Amino acid sequence: MTQTNQQVTTEESFAPVVRTESLTKHFTENDSWLNRIRPNREVRTIRAVDGVDLSVQSGEILGLVGESGCGKSTLARTILRLIEPTDGKIYFGDEEVTSYSGSELLEFRSKAQMIYQDPFESLNPRYTVRKTLVEPMEIHGIGDNKQERIQRAGDLLEEVGLSKEHLDRYPHEFSGGQRQRIAIARAMSVEPELIVADEPTSALDVSVQAQILNLIFDLQQKRDLTMLFITHDLAVVRQICDRVIVMYLGQVVERGPTSELFQHAEHPYTQSLLSSIPLPDPNLQRESIRLEGDVPSPINPPSGCNFHPRCPKVIPPENWAHSHEEWRRVLRYKTRLKNGDVQPEAMRRELETRQNSVTDDDILDALYEEHVGEWTPSHLGSQEGKKNSTQELPPSVEEEIRRSLNVAITDSNTKAVKLVDELWNTVCATDIPDEIVTADMRSASCHLYDETMPGQPDRAIGVVGSKAKSSAPNLEERK
Ligand SMILES: Nc1ncnc2c1ncn2[C@@H]1O[C@H](COP(=O)(O)OP(=O)(O)OP(=O)(O)O)[C@@H](O)[C@H]1O
């Protein structure tokens, strides 16, 4: 892997408040007791968080972004030990908290608090505001006596924009925004060092979202809090976060200081996310990058780089002599074949409902049309995309695809997959990319930045993460 003499600053150059090493959380699908006693039940693993290294520095707001289902909430809950990690380590300051239990865990929970997305669910409807705020103080030994705790509860209410008169009311007597203010006051009541805010405004009316966001930001500034802020709203990230981590399918794909990442995203996934943010000036135009297909299931993530089936910049096979758009069309076919979406028998049955006799050639033509024929280019605005959307694939490529379809029809899907793998292989499908340092505090997990790849931009200046710990002598030692 790349090593140079260039000194770079990475997250590891500082003393973080919280840090994870290869943090992993897998769930078991349908893990109910009823399912567990079923004979021959199929056990499938959901790889919700898959080896995440992150650190949140003292006093910063670290944004965690990614599409729905990429593992943000699971990562947050695992860091706070609200659910147990499957593997990996969590450090709070210098101490490893992964194995904490009893009083140690209780103390950790007072130092690291969560603000949830939905204040309707996070507040106990049977507790008055007084009890909601005073009870955590009692449990964690904050305040000398009951009177002092009640006094603190009233002060906290005022700090979050409510008043002491609200102490004896119940959650149902408040609006959504007010309830979130109470939840924020509760998180603050135990004087935490770390706040994990999980989409704290997304369940609220648009009219109050900005107020709650400002409140969180003001408290963070005033109390010099360290914060992990989870959101799918990139405009919010740009507004309040110092640094950003981008997640895709349980893994970190890019990280960096907010302004730099927004100015120049390095990972193709981040580039596509940013391309969807509306520009402030309606006269300005930007090419929107449309991703192919949906986010794959974390039960069966793609091989190699798990973004590769949707990646607009997926690296073509070494001997590829055609356009990139054509390569992506072939890759889409390959992905469908691998996922079991190319189904000769189902196609045969469908054709039989329409015609008297069905030959293998009919099935082949119909499968080709379904899985290769229609194609919407990823770069809708690009000239190359427009041109290729109306063009046939090069004859040699079409011939090979038809050959593999014939194998799927007359032999097996497994053999067809083997054939297309031999024909068109890409490093993006075979190798998991290292997290490559591309600049100070910046890294991307993408083969495009791996300088050992022929013809790739030479931007790599190191490797980060636990995978690379032993081989990254140029990264500054932690201070
Ligand atoms: N308790 C659970 N049991 C089984 N699967 C789970 C559980 N919690 C989460 N998952 C799965 O783990 C994956 C990650 O979910 P998670 O809620 O962490 O994503 P997210 O990025 O926070 O999504 P969102 O933005 O929609 O909240 C999803 O596929 C989800 O279905």
State the gist of this model.
The chain is α/β, with parallel strands linked by helices. It has helices at about 35, 70-80, 100-110, 120, 130-140, 145-160, 175-190, 205-220, 235-240, 260-265, 270-275, 325-340, 345-350, 360-375, 385-390, 395-410, 415-425, 425-430, and strands at about 15-30, 45-55, 60-65, 85-90, 95, 110-115, 195-200, 225-230, 245-250, 250-255, 435-440, 440-445. The chain contains 18 helices and twelve strands.
Task: Describe the 3D structure.
Keywords: ATP-binding, Nucleotide-binding, Plasmid, Transport. Pfam families: ABC_tran, oligo_HPY. It comes from Natronosalvus rutilus. By secondary structure, this protein is of the alpha/beta class. It has 18 helices and 12 strands. The strands form 2 sheets. The protein has an 8-stranded mixed beta sheet with strand order 6-7-8-3-9-10-12-11, sandwiched between helices. Strands 2-1-4-5 form a 4-stranded antiparallel beta sheet. The longest helix is centred in the middle third of the chain and has 17 residues, at 206-222. It is elongated and about 85 Å long. Residues 1-5, 379-390 and 466-479 have low confidence and may be disordered. The structure holds adenosine-5'-triphosphate (ATP). Adenosine-5'-triphosphate is lined by residues 27, 46, 48, 66, 68-74, 232, 298. The site of adenosine-5'-triphosphate (ATP) has 13 residues, from strand 2 and helix 2.
**Strand fraction:** 15-25%
Task: Please give the largest β-sheet.
Answer: 8 strands, mixed
Distance between the first and last residues' Cα: 25 Å
Total number of strands: 12
Structural class: alpha/beta
Helix content: 25-40%
**Global geometry:** elongated
Write out the distinct hetero groups bound to the structure.
Answer: adenosine-5'-triphosphate
Overall mean pLDDT: 86
Q: Radius of gyration in whole Å, from Cα?
A: 26 Å
Q: Enumerate the strands of the largest sheet in spatial order, edge to edge or round the barrel.
A: 6-7-8-3-9-10-12-11
Number of helices: 18
Low-confidence stretches: 1-5, 379-390, 466-479
Listing every helix as H and every strand as E from the N terminus to the C terminus, the arrangement reads: EHEEHEEHEHHHHEHEHEEHHHHHHHHHEE
Pfam families: ABC_tran, oligo_HPY
GO molecular function: ATP binding; ATP hydrolysis activity
Protein name: ABC transporter ATP-binding protein
InterPro entries: AAA+_ATPase, ABC_transp_ATP-bind, ABC_transporter-like_ATP-bd, ABC_transporter-like_CS, Oligopep_ABC_C, P-loop_NTPase
